[in-house]
Write a structure and sequence with these properties.
The protein contains seven helices and four strands; from the N terminus they run αααααβαββαβ. With 254 residues, the protein is an alpha+beta fold. A four-stranded antiparallel sheet has the order 2-3-1-4, with helices on one face.
Length: 254
Amino acid sequence: MANPMMQDSVWTKQQKYEEAEALYQQDNKGGKSGGSTIKNEIAEARQQIQKVLNSGGSGGAPADNSQVMNRVSSLEKENKDLKKVVEDMKSLVQKLENRVTKLEGGSSAPAAQAPVPKKPAPADDDDDDDIDLFGSDDEVDEEAEKIRQERLAAYEAKKSKKPALIAKSSLLLDVKPWDDETDMKKMEQEVRKITADGLLWGQAKLVPIGYGIKKLQINCVIEDDKISTDFLEEEITAIEDLVQSMDIAAFNKI
């Protein structure tokens, strides 16, 4: 429902009342005469406005009301147009801000993922049998095994050329005769007649042990894997007519 004041003819004379009000204010400030007359006119205008408001605006002119309504409609339309322009401007500014943010790399939106390349479709079985681009696994395994065997053979050949370390021991044996009448030279000769693979006799000497009796002290080198001390003792004590006993005076690893 329209405002009753907009339908009253008194509002078409608004400019006149405003001018009267301004003149009244000037008269009051400047102290000119006739101020009371203007004041009375303003008071009358106010009374008229109050009457129109109380009467519901029945005294308005139809022509003046239509002009006011047209003006109001025009203002409303302009207001809507302005609102629309403002909304469009806001939307445009927001788009520009988003675009600038993306260009600067600070966009909070997740980056679009790169498209995953599609896997090539598997070829037909017939094509696989006819064309083998990369070679079969069996061929690769055979080649690797061949290389491994060649390297092992080369390593074994190189290892076989190195002389194997032979564990050896140096022994000093005490060979005792039965009495002082035993032929010590013959004893030494009989002992040296004991030969075996891995046995090498060394220097020998006679050492007195008391009452004119001497013992044969003889050195030998043996290979531990081939000759044992038990073997030496058995072979030497087997010379029963000359040898009473045999002892190991010293034993050293070489």
